[in-house]
Write a structure and sequence with these properties.
This protein is an alpha/beta fold. It has 11 helices and 9 strands. The strands form 2 sheets. Strands 3-2-1-4-8 form a 5-stranded mixed beta sheet. The chain starts with a strand and ends with a helix.
Length: about 280
């Protein structure tokens, strides 16, 4: 394991156009050593052929869709870096994104997971006044914002999984993503809650802005997605004994800090998800 290497884990399932755009933005805007870990969940287009042309990349190929949590876990297992980034393939990163995220892990040792702000994300990380009109204007907007919010951030109660940087030691302590949340939704909530229970804190880097297409791969605006999210909300409710209905959790949210406050002790049998 390299002490300076970061493994960037990207899940794919069709939508080669989005994946190419994401890869190109990382290559253009990353200024520290990294390796690619691609996990493909049964693409039927030319995604696999493209991924095999990307330099310094490991490609894990699944014949079927194993879901976001299982795919992330496969990527984590394949990673060689001391640090791991889980990055959605429908994102576009901006100049210096990764080194700026790393800055916070080094500055505040208690941080276990750090994430950026974005245009399409849960409200805690959302920038509602993003003024770029096209992706051609994105880098200039992000750099201007980075200067305005240089070395500023805050502790959130949770982070969204579109982009999360964490050290491998976090996974060694709490395990990976909980694969019961198939095909996606609530596995990132669960991961953050377990990180907090284990003694780590979360951080939002306000000086890192990343564009997010939103549901680019999983078709999040259709009824199938909504039903799947509701089912996972029920699994989440049961796992953490939340006193709200799955519908209320899914539509109105919940307070993760209530769970963390209640779960006083870190218990491996309860709080570790094996990879």
């Amino acid at each position: 394991m390299s002490d300076s290497l970061t493994s960037i884990v990207v899940l794919t399932k069709d939508r080669l156009d989005l994946t190419k755009r994401c890869v190109e933005s990382v290559l253009r805007n990353t200024d520290i050593p990294f390796e690619w870990i691609f996990v493909d969940n049964g693409s039927k287009d030319n995604t696999i052929e493209y991924l095999q042309t990307v330099e310094n990349a490991k490609v894990v190929q699944n014949s079927e869709n194993k879901g976001f949590a299982a795919g992330c876990n496969q990527g984590i297992v394949a990673a060689s870096g001391k640090y791991i980034v889980l990055l959605n393939n429908d994102t576009v990163v901006t100049p210096g994104w990764l080194s700026k995220l790393h800055f916070w892990l080094k500055r505040i040792p208690s941080i276990g997971i750090v994430g950026p702000v974005s245009n399409f994300v849960a409200p805690i990380q959302r920038v509602d006044d993003a003024v770029y009109q096209s992706l051609e204007e994105l880098d200039a907007y992000a750099e201007k914002r980075s200067l305005l919010f240089k070395e500023k951030g805050f502790y959130p109660h949770r982070l969204t999984g579109l982009c999360m940087l964490f050290p491998v030691e976090l996974v060694n302590r709490i395990g990976g993503m909980d694969e019961r949340f198939f095909p996606g939704n609530y596995e990132d909530d669960d991961f953050c809650i377990r990180a907090r229970i284990s003694g780590y804190t979360l951080w939002v880097a306000q000086d890192v802005f990343i564009h997010h297409e939103g549901h680019g791969t999983f078709g999040g605006r259709d009824i199938t997605y909504k039903l799947s999210s509701l089912k996972n909300a029920e699994k989440f409710r049961q796992k953490w004994s939340i006193g709200r209905s799955a519908f209320e959790i899914d539509q109105c949210g919940y307070n993760p800090s209530d769970i963390v406050t209640r779960e006083v002790h870190f218990i491996p049998a309860r709080h570790v998800e094996k990879l």
